[in-house]
Design brief:
Length: 274
C-alpha cells in the first residue's frame, strides 16, 4: 500500500504520540515508586487554594514546612502517600476534602555501588530516577563471565531502625526476555553485586574441549552441543562425570544424555572401542 504525503504525516504523528505517551507513562510510574528523602525539592499543590502552594527542599530530618500545618515529615513516602498524608492534615480543621498533589521538582543525588562482573565497577552518583538497567549501562554492561543473577543489598527503615534487605534480579528474564517488571528503581546507598557465572568442563572425544559457562537446566546433551558435538570416535554410552561434593569427588559412570550438569562438573567423553 502506498501512502500520500498527508497520510504519511498523520501516521508519523500517531507513532510519535504513542512513543511520547509510553515514555511519559513509564516516567510517571517510576516517580510513583520513588521514595521522598532529604534534599529532594518538592512542590505541594492544593486544588483551588493557590495560597497553600509550597515548593521547598526536604530537610536532613525529612521535613517540609507547609502553610497551616507546619512541618510535615515526608521522608520514606511515595508522592502518592505524601499527598494523602498532607490531605489528612489539612482536613483536620482547615479545609474540607482537600485535593493535594505532590511533585518532585528536583531529585537529590544518590550514591549506589555496583561490583562484580561489569566493565566499570565502582560508586556512581545518580540524579533523578535511575533503574537497574540504566546503572548497568553506566557501568559498561555485563562481562562475558557474568552469571544470571544480580543481588541488590538495600537498607530499609524498620521500626525506627535500619535493616538490610536483599533483592535478587534474574538477569536472563530481565535482559533476554525483556521482563521490565524486574527493572527496579535504585535507592540511595544500594549495593549491587553481579556474581561470576559457574563453569563446567568437557574433555575427551568432543570437537571443542574447553571450559564453558554453566546455565540453569544444563544437561549432558546440551553441554555436548555447546562444545561442538561428539567426535567420530566418541562413545556416548560411556560418558563419565566427575563432580565435587564437599571435599570429595563423586564419579557418575555412564551418564545419560539428560543427566543434569552442575557448576564445576567435569564431563569426560571416552573413545569408542570400535
Amino acid at each position: 500500500m502506498v501512502y500520500n504525503h498527508t497520510e504519511m504525516r498523520i501516521i508519523i504523528a500517531i507513532f510519535l504520540g504513542i512513543v511520547f505517551l509510553t515514555s511519559f507513562s513509564m516516567a510517571a510510574c517510576a516517580e510513583q515508586d520513588y521514595l521522598i528523602g532529604p534534599d529532594d525539592m518538592v512542590k505541594v499543590t492544593v486544588y483551588n487554594h493557590p495560597d497553600l502552594t509550597a515548593t521547598d527542599r526536604i530537610t536532613g530530618d525529612g521535613l517540609i514546612m507547609l502553610p497551616l500545618v507546619g512541618d510535615v515529615n515526608l521522608a520514606g513516602l511515595s508522592v502518592e502517600q505524601a499527598a494523602k498524608k498532607i490531605s489528612r492534615l489539612l482536613s483536620d480543621g482547615f479545609i474540607m476534602d482537600p485535593k493535594v498533589s505532590v511533585f518532585v521538582v528536583e531529585f537529590r543525588s544518590r550514591k549506589v555501588m555496583i561490583m562484580g562482573q561489569v566493565f566499570r565497577p565502582g560508586i556512581f552518583t545518580l540524579s533523578g530516577n535511575t533503574t537497574f538497567l540504566e546503572l548497568l549501562t553506566l557501568s559498561g554492561g555485563l562481562t562475558k563471565e557474568a552469571g544470571d543473577k544480580a543481588t541488590i543489598k538495600r537498607k530499609a527503615p524498620d521500626a525506627g531502625k535500619e535493616s538490610e534487605g536483599l533483592i535478587t534480579i534474574d538477569l536472563r528474564r530481565l535482559i533476554d526476555e525483556g521482563d521490565a517488571s524486574l527493572d527496579v528503581t535504585l535507592m540511595d546507598n544500594d549495593s549491587i553485586y553481579i556474581a561470576k557465572a559457574g563453569v563446567f568442563y568437557i574433555t575427551g572425544e568432543i570437537r571443542k574441549p574447553d571450559a564453558y559457562k554453566h546455565e540453569e537446566g544444563l544437561t549432558v546433551i546440551k553441554a555436548a552441543t555447546m562444545a561442538g558435538g561428539f567426535s567420530d570416535k566418541a562413545a556416548p554410552g560411556r560418558i563419565k562425570i566427575i563432580r565435587k561434593v564437599g571435599n570429595k569427588e563423586k564419579v557418575i559412570e555412564r551418564a545419560g544424555m539428560d543427566e543434569r550438569i552442575l557448576p564445576d562438573d567435569i564431563i569426560i567423553i571416552p573413545e569408542s572401542f570400535f
